[in-house]
Amino acid sequence: MVRSLIPARLSPAVRPRRAGRPSAVLRPACPGAPASTAATNPFSTPVADGRHGDAAALWSAFDAQIPQHAPERAVDIIVNNAGIGRGADLASLTEDGFDEVFAVNVRAPFFIVREGLKRLRDDGRIINISSGAAHLAMPEAIAYATKSALDNFTLNLAKELGARGITANSVAPGIIDTDVNAGWLRGNPEAEAHAASLAALGRVGRPEDVADIVAFLASDDARWVTGKVIDATGGSGL
After folding, report:
1. What is the pLDDT of residue 20?
2. Euclidean distance between the first and final Cα of the chain, in Å?
């Protein structure tokens, strides 16, 4: 996803990764520099999984690193890419399990954005990675309904931040061939065939399918798109 974003903007972007292993991806703000030469300089901080003070700690780490790479502490893009789920239904989901999923999927993006607004430029971009499952009944993993809260958060951000020219959108992937799904998907022809059959386009999604949509939303071409949930499921559930 980072490589897809490089042509869109050259200033620092914050991209929290998986729960418990977020990172900030730094790119030097070098006016006129070719996008192909923009360097990414990731640093990892064990924060932003939704615990109290995590978002402030992440941004403090960002502030401590950015002078090494850019002349100013300004951010063009925030992408909230972290997300977890729990394979539990209404009866079996524990309070601790619910709290963990809510913290990563909702609380962390909320406070990352709130703290980040002090650094986000006018005309910036906020992109939240949601899920196509947010708009389907999936009682066997009921805590994933938290992604619906993320989508509504996105809608509210778009309304509140529009006066600054900041757009806010969600991208909702379907089944994607990532390390998260590797355990049940890769090397399992039956599982892969079933996953592919769910999409109208007849295949399992690839990371670049999602990354390219994010890159578009981060670009100036998407300046008039805000408050939307972009389906990136390949037509799953049609």
Report:
1. 39
2. 27
Domains of the chain: 5-167 (3.40.50.720)
β-pair type (41-44, 167-173): unpaired
Q: Using CA atoms, how far apart are residues 2 and 208, in angstroms rounded to an integer? A: 10
Whether 20 is catalytic: no
Active-site residue, selected from the candidate residues 59, 62, 144, 153? 144
**208, two tokens:** 């670049």
pLDDT (tens digit per residue) in 31-71: 333 344 344 556 666 555 677 888 998 898 888 887 666 66
Q: Write the single-letter amino acid at 177.
A: D
